[in-house]
Structures are given as C-alpha cells and as structure tokens.
Design goal:
CATH architecture of the largest domain in chain A: Orthogonal Bundle
Distance between the termini of chain A: 53 Å
Largest interface: A-B, 108 and 99 residues
Shape of chain B: flat
Order of helices and strands of chain B: HHHHHHHHHHHHHHH
Number of helices of chain A: 13
Number of domains of chain B: 2
CATH topology of the largest domain in chain B: MetI-like fold
Helix content of chain B: over 70%
Order of helices and strands of chain A: HEEHHHHHHHHHHHH
Radius of gyration of chain A: 25 Å
Structural class of chain B: mainly alpha
Oligomer: heterodimer
Shape of chain A: globular
Distance between the termini of chain B: 24 Å
CATH class of the largest domain in chain A: Mainly Alpha
CATH topology of the largest domain in chain A: MetI-like fold
Number of domains of chain A: 2
CATH superfamily of the largest domain in chain B: MetI-like
Number of strands of chain B: 0
Chain lengths: 296, 285
C-alpha cells in the first residue's frame, strides 16, 4: 500500500461522508439552525407592507405592553409548577408500585402508555366536552355528585382552569415517564434493598435511602425535560379553554406567540416573545446544570 | 427476577400474600378505570343523542345508540380525506427520516468525514431549543421556500431530528469496525456496506425511529395547522379542530374517536417495539 493510495482514499472517504450528510444537514440548516438566527434577527426588525426596517427593542416593548403578557407568564409558570408537583411525583410512585407487582405488568404498562399514543386534539376534545362539562352531566361532576362532593365549573372557573389543564395533561403524558422510571428501577441492584432491610429499614426508608438516590440522575434529567415541555403549554389552552379561557385564566406564553404571530399580523412581536422564552428556558437550564454539577 | 423494594418471600407469607393480592386487585381496578374509563366514556358518549348527553345523571350505556353520529362525522368533516392526508404525511416522514437520517448517522459514525464532529455538535445543540420557540421563524422560512400546503413542509423539518440521529449513530457505533473492514476488503463501497451489512443489523433501531416518526406526525398539531392552511391538505387533528366550532359536540367527539383509532391499532401492533424503544432511547447513553 502506498501512501498516495491511502491519501486518495481518505479524500474520497471525506467526500462520500459529506455526500451522505448533505440531505440531513440541509434540513437542519433550513429548519433548525437558520430559524434560530432568524428568530433573533426578526425580533429586532419590523416588516410592514413588505418593507423590513430595524426597530431596536420596539418589538420587545410592544410585547411586554400586551395586557396579557404578565398573565401569560403567570399562568405558564403556575402550570409548570403544578405539573411538576403532580405530573412528576405521580409517575414516579406509579412506577414504584408497578415494579413491586409480579402480575399483569405488561397490561399495566400498556394501559398507562395508551393515552400517550392518542392524538392530543382527540384527548382534549374528550376532556372538554365530556369530562369537564360544567353541568352535572359531565363525567367528573357526575362522579363528584354521586360521592356527595361539591361539583366544579372546571374550565369555566378561573381558579380551576390551570389545575384542570394539569390533570388532562398528566393523564395524557405520564405514560412515557412511568416507563422510563420503570426501566431505571429495574437497574437498581437487589442487594441494596437486601442490605437496607437487614439494617431494619422499612418500606418508606428503603424508598428514601435506596430507590431515590439510585434513580437520582434520571429523576433530575426528567425534571428538566418536563419543565421545558410544560413551559411550551399551548394545545391545552387552545382546545380546552378556546385559547384565553375565562378571564384570561388559560392564556399561555406560546398561545400569546400564536396570537401575535398569526392573528394580530405581528410576526416580529411573536419572534421577540419567542426569544424571551428561549432566554428564560436557557436560564432554567443554567440553574439546572449548576445544581446537578455540584460535586458530591 | 431480581429483588425489588419488597422481598419475594415477604409476599409469599400469609399476611403479605393477602396484602399483595388485595393491592394487585386494587391497582388493576383503579388503573383500568382511570385509563380505559375516559376512553369508554368517549366512544359511548359519541353514540348518545344530543339530549341524552346533556342528561343528569349521565347514562352508563347509551339508551338509544346513534351510530349516525359517527357516519355524520365521517362525511361532514370529510374524514377519509383527512385521514389519508395524515397517513401520507406520516409515511413520507418515515421515508425521509430513514433515508436522510440513516445516511447522516452512518457518515458520522463510520465514514467520519472532516468536521463531522462539529456537525454532530450543531445537530445535538438543537435538542436544547424548545420547538415552540422556533415556530415563527420556521413558519416564515417555510413561506420563503414556498412550502405552504406542500407535504415537504412536514417531511423536511421532520428530518431535522437530532434525537433520531443520536439514536442511529449510537447504534452504528456499536457495530464492530472489523465487520465493515472485511466488507471493504471485499471491495464493497460505503453505499454497499451500508445497504448490505449495516442496515440488516440495524433493523430494531430503524423500527424504533419509524414508529417515533409516525407517532410524531399523527400527534402534531400547531405546525401542520400553520403550514397546511387549505382544507384539502389538513391533517386529521387540525381538521377536527377547524370544524369543532360549528359542529354538534357528539359529532366532534365521534370524529376525535375515529382520528384516534389508527393510533390505538398501531400501538397494539407495535407495543413491544414502542416500549423497548422508549427505554433504549432514554436510558443507555
């Protein structure tokens, strides 16, 4: 083998390599990398009647002046926090429970994952019309009434709007988290439980001192992923609450982006709000990395 | 089976055994009710008349089933066309992702061209950017490329999926180099090596990527709503939403049931692959 041959082969390999890459790279360029830059550029421009001018911080000022701006952030953060409390703890304990059962495991797994497969629009119409029906004909009110508990106006009540959205969203999304936690639980060495039991630790102490520390990595990763996902709250308010909900109680940040971009002919304002959202989420990620990178 | 929180022997003894079976029955009952219950309510509710659905207390079985709610939904919303569109977009997305993402992952894993790692890094960086943040500039780009109402508006952005590339690349990384070297010795070029050696071994991961691609297109809402503005090109979820305002409630829910049926069938067929793919994709890595 001569050196020249190897060199020629290398160049050819680089070329073929790039040929193999080109399709995906172009798709990333047009639909991920370029929009990223363009979103930032757009947020400092204004396009009116086909003429684009630089306007500095105008779009940001206009979007912050929107009467729904702070409400949208408040609702989105409330949703995120509540979804974290409910939608985060519930799948973990469901996974622990399923992991202890020796029967019907496949059935239970399929059961919790089934809603994840359904189109969210279908699920949300079910919740909107049949579950959260504010009259006593709705599923929840019928159950509450049968139990002699006070019924609720659900989506018609500003105080119940976000909790009701969290409930629907948890029902339709928790399956993925349950399966991921189940896989993590199966990786915990049985000897750890054995040792804890010999030390006299009860079930709760074993969860606290074995299960949680052993799954800490995946738990904290899922927390981050869930925060990013729930901050993008959109389809729940759109379908369950017709967008804004009663007294603006459902308006989310992404819904506001949608409103500005596609109904108020303000794509630049919408882009500015998108950039703000990116900054906030980047802030969350930075805090997350700080917290998790702490040396043990 | 390995030991879990509670030991096997404890569950076999008298009291533990009783508790276990009670708990199992309780869990099965509660979870079946919580997850099948709403779906039962949906399917049967859409069979009720407008009068019966407003009745209190609600009936458990439809007293006077109205199957015409379903046929109404089918014809009024033109569900055949909407389902066909969604199916067409989903299949196309699978094909585009399988061809372009597989080729890219193979290049990044085995051909390793110059700057390959930079490209991989830039691709993985997009995982950090929440999809909704990019929706406006992506939409403007789709307009500039004249993609509105074109299936490419769904297929091309679907390729820009860093998670798929990551999954595929990691799988290809695990294929021994010797195997490929042997093929090269026999005079096979990169295309032939990919086609006759790498792809046959990679069937499980290709299955996982395909399943994720189909589900993602079927579930997506805002992007198809924006880039498919004409009634003829809508996906089924967007079509139902567009009709929801002026259509009786039961007919809307009947349409929502029909839109969900393909996903349920898909789930029942590919359940094993979905479950294993989900955990494979999220844990080891």
């Amino acid at each position: 083998m001569t050196n020249g041959w190897v060199g020629g082969r290398k160049v050819r390999n680089h070329l073929t390599g790039h040929l193999f890459l080109i399709g995906a790279v172009l798709c990333f360029a047009f639909f991920a990398w370029y929009p990223m830059v363009r979103g930032i550029v757009m947020s400092f421009q204004r396009t009116r009647r086909g003429v684009t001018t630089w306007v500095g911080w105008d779009n940001y000022e206009r979007i912050i002046d929107d009467p729904s701006f702070w409400t949208a952030w408040k609702n989105t953060l409330y949703f995120t926090v509540l979804a974290l409390v409910v939608g985060y703890a519930v799948p973990f304990f469901v996974a622990i429970l399923f992991n202890e059962l020796r029967h019907a495991k496949g059935y239970l797994r399929a059961l919790v994952y089934l809603p994840v497969m359904l189109p969210p629009a279908s699920t949300l119409f079910l919740f909107k019309f049949y579950v959260y029906d504010p009259s006593d004909a709705g599923l929840f009110n019928a159950i509450l009434k049968a139990l002699h508990l006070p019924t609720s106006q659900w989506m018609q009540s500003p105080a119940m709007t976000v909790p009701a959205m969290v409930l629907a969203s948890t029902w339709m999304n928790m399956g993925g988290a349950v399966l991921i936690y189940l896989a993590a639980l199966q990786n915990i060495p049985g000897e750890l439980y054995e040792a804890a039991e010999l030390d006299g630790a009860g079930v709760w102490r074993r969860i606290l001192h074995v299960t949680i520390p052993q799954t800490k990595l995946i738990l904290s990763l899922m927390a981050m992923l869930q925060i990013v996902a729930t901050m993008q709250l959109f389809i729940e308010p759109l379908i369950l609450a017709n967008g804004a909900g009663s007294q603006d109680s459902a308006t989310s940040v992404v819904y506001l982006i949608y409103q500005h971009g596609f109904f108020q002919n303000d794509l630049n304002g919408a882009a500015a709000l998108g950039v703000l959202m990116l900054v906030v989420l980047a802030g969350f990620s930075a805090v997350y990395l700080r917290l998790t990178a702490r040396p043990e | 089976m390995t030991r879990t929180l509670i030991s096997q022997s404890q569950l076999r003894r008298g009291r533990g055994r009783f508790l276990y079976w009670t708990l199992l029955a309780l869990v099965l009952g509660v979870f079946s009710l919580a997850f099948i219950g709403p779906l039962y309510w949906m399917v049967t509710g859409a069979l009720k008349s407008g009068q019966e659905i407003a009745q209190t207390p609600p009936t458990l079985f439809p007293a006077d089933p109205q199957p015409q709610n379903y046929s109404d939904a089918w014809y009024r919303l033109n569900l055949a066309k909407l389902l066909f569109n969604t199916f067409y977009y989903a299949v196309g997305a699978v094909v585009f992702q399988l061809v372009l993402d597989t080729a890219a992952a193979y290049a990044l894993s085995k051909l390793r061209p110059i700057f390959g790692n930079v490209i991989l890094g830039l691709m993985l960086a997009t995982l950090m950017i929440p999809a909704m943040v990019l929706i406006v500039p992506q939409y403007v780009t789709a307009i500039d490329l004249n993609l509105l109402d074109s299936p490419f508006a769904i297929w091309l952005p679907a390729v820009a999926n860093a998670f798929n590339i990551f999954l595929l690349k990691r799988f290809f990384d695990s294929i021994p180099e010797d195997l490929l070297a042997a093929a090269t010795m026999d005079g096979a070029g990169p295309v032939r090596t990919l086609w006759s050696i790498v792809l046959p071994i990679s069937r499980p991961i290709l299955g996982v990527v395909s399943i994720f691609a189909v589900t993602a297109v079927w579930k997506d809402f805002l992007w198809p709503k924006l880039v498919m503005p004409s009634p003829e090109t809508r996906t089924v979820s967007v079509g139902i939403y567009a009709f929801a305002g002026g259509t009786p409630m039961n007919v809307v829910v009947a349409a929502a049931v029909i839109a969900a049926i393909p996903t349920v069938i898909f789930f029942l067929i590919f359940q094993k692959n979905i479950m294993s793919g989900l955990t494979a994709g999220s844990l080891k890595g």
